[in-house]
Amino acid sequence: MSDESDGGRTLGRRHLLAGVVGTGLLGAGVVGSGAVDLGTGDAGRRRLPVEVTTLDAVGSTAGTTRVPSPETPTVVDCFATWCGPCIEQMDALGTVYDRYGDRAAFVSVTNERFGGGLDADDVRAWWREHDGRWTLGHDPEGDLLAALGASGLPYLAVTDGSGSVVWTHGGVASVETLDRQVASVL
């Protein structure tokens, strides 16, 4: 893939852009595509913990938090307000939070950038509307997604008390699956 004008030596701008767009579409294919269990892998173990900003919202206070929580099994939910399957995931998260919220930390993190019509108040309104009641994080640089090796949304991870990622999942996870994974680290 090269521009003919350079004798075939370099990647053409059109081809580069097509590749970038294609990669984005491929990554977006995980959104709502169903369960994709990505196993335990080493992706998150090398770059966690990540410090994220927290928003003042139901179940959350403004400040920062370390993900995963120190010495506590942690359920990590990466989401976006524009993501339809992320809404569906909130139901399962709420059910599992009700069962284990006193023994495990829960944090939902969006990497959406504020500006251009979206601000913290919009995220808080989405949070209230979808019954969020645990820590709400904001990571506009996407450090947490990168540390987990996430390629789409929603994306879940469960860590044990030592902070090791024991399970990751792209797409919507059922209550039963999420329950089983959280119970395994308690």
Could you walk me through the main structural features you see in this protein, from its secondary elements to its overall organization?
Helix content is 32%, strand content 22%. The chain contains 5 helices and 8 strands. An 8-stranded mixed beta sheet has the order 1-8-7-4-5-6-2-3. Helix 2 (84-100) crosses helix 5 (175-185). The chain is globular, with a radius of gyration of 18 Å. 37% of the residues are buried. InterPro entries: Redoxin (IPR013740), Thioredoxin-like_sf (IPR036249), Thioredoxin_domain (IPR013766), Thioredoxin_ResA/DsbE_sf (IPR050553). This is TlpA family protein disulfide reductase.
CATH architecture term of the domain at 50-165 and 172-184: 3-Layer(aba) Sandwich
Q: Under the CATH scheme, which class of the domain at 50-165 and 172-184?
A: Alpha Beta
Number of beta strands = 8
CATH topology of the domain at 50-165 and 172-184: Glutaredoxin
Strand content: 15-25%
| Helix proportion | 25-40%
Instruction: Please state the average pLDDT score.
Output: 82
Radius of gyration (CA) equals 18 Å
Low-confidence stretches: 1-46
How many distinct helices? 5
InterPro entries: Redoxin, Thioredoxin-like_sf, Thioredoxin_domain, Thioredoxin_ResA/DsbE_sf
Protein name: TlpA family protein disulfide reductase
Domain Thioredoxin: 24-186
Pfam families: Redoxin
